[in-house]
Amino acid sequence: MLQQFGFTQYESQVYTSLITINKALDPTAIVKRSGVPRTKVYEVLKNLVEKGIVLEATVEKKRQYTALPMEAMIEKLKANFDANIEELKKIEVAEMEIDDRVWTLKENQSIASVMKELTDEATKSIFISAWSDDLQHYLSVLEAKEEAGMDVVVHAIGEVQTRIKKVSTLIPNQSHETLERSRILIVDEKEMVFAGMEEGSWQAIRTQSPPLVKFFTEFFYHDVALTKITQRYQNIVMQDEDIKDMLLKLRY
Q1: Which residues contact residue 153 at a Cβ distance below 8 angstroms, ignoring those fewer than 6 apart?
Q2: Section 48-70 average pLDDT
Q3: Closest by Cα among 78, 229, 121, 80 to 168
Q4: How do residues 218-232 score in pLDDT, each as one tens digit?
Q5: Domain boundaries, the chain
Q6: What is the C-alpha to C-alpha distance for residues 42 and 99, in angstroms, rounded to an integer?
């Protein structure tokens, strides 16, 4: 139960054995309830007492233990987490020169967090392409950035409600067989993230490499331009089977 908060497996087992019974236990009883070896239980109890999540008493020369109440435990974990975050914020990150390496990143939440951080830090421009449900996580920041005078351009796949002026919208239909979920973020025309699905999992690249940033900026406007052209002249281009076939093979 507590391992995800940085406690060991034995510590988690001992705390669970104490919090799930409404009375104090001695080490022998804790061994039976927790499954922690007798050779380890005293060390584990000592650590938990020092961490303030197990209370200790001596009754008739025998040590007894009880768990910190669950509500108090939750408050303690929250306070510790907040304190750690504040300490993390104090770390001074050195300003880096242009890093032209291409970094790979996996896991959807990690990718979203990096994109959110870059969006927050943008000072001049933001170009972003994503599906409408993904865009919802960034709209408030994007709208604030535009109101502050920044150049914000959005390419949305699916309907999106926003005050942003420069928005192109592609409404997918059943003809878009090859359309895949993806994201492009270009910040200040100097750093970009491109994310897509591979074998059912999100993967991304992030770089400040000028040639790649330029390439993906052009790729972004390629999507925007084709979306606008297709929408404006849909009745014409979709009647030409060759053009229609090529358009529907594109990622945009």
Answers
A1: 125, 126, 127, 128, 166, 167, 220, 224
A2: 89
A3: 229
A4: 989 888 887 777 667
A5: 3-89, 102-249
A6: 51
Whether the per-residue pLDDT at 3 is higher than 90: the answer is no
Tokens 């060759």, residue located: 242
Q: What is the CATH number of domain 3-89?
A: 1.10.10.10
Is 83 strand, coil or helix?
A: helix
Contact status, residue 136 vs residue 183, Cβ threshold 8 Å: no
Report the distance separating Cα 186 and Cα 195, nearest Å: 12
Contact 167, 143 (CB under 8 A): no
Q: Which of 63, 48, 59 is nearest to 13 (CA)?
A: 48
Whether the CB-CB separation of 252 and 170 falls below 8 Å is answered with yes
Residue 105's Cβ-count burial label (10 Å; 0-12, 13-18, 19+) is middle
CATH of domain 102-249: 3.30.870.10
What pLDDT score was predicted for residue 177?
47
Q: pLDDT tier at 176 (50, 70, 90 boundaries)?
A: very low
First to last CA, the chain: 45
